Amino acid sequence: MSALRMGKSVAEIEEAFAEETSRDRQHRDMLRRSAELRTARRQVERRNRRGSLRFVALVLALIATAAIVTVVMFRTLYLLLS
What we know:
Layout: H1 2-81
C-alpha cells in the first residue's frame, strides 16, 4: 500500500513540477515581451525627439538664411544706389 501512495505522490510531484515549469515559462515570456515593448517605445520616443530637434534646427537655419540674405540684399542696393 505504501508503494502505491509513493507512486501517486511522485506522479503528483511530477505534475506539479510540470505545471510550475509551464507557469515559469509563461512568466518569462511575458516579461520578455513587456521588455521588448518598452524598448520599442523608447526607440520611438527617441526618434521623435531627434526629429523634433532636427525640425527646429531646420527652421532656425531657414530664418537665419532669410535674415542674412535680406541684410546683404539691402546693403547691396544701398551701395548700388548711392
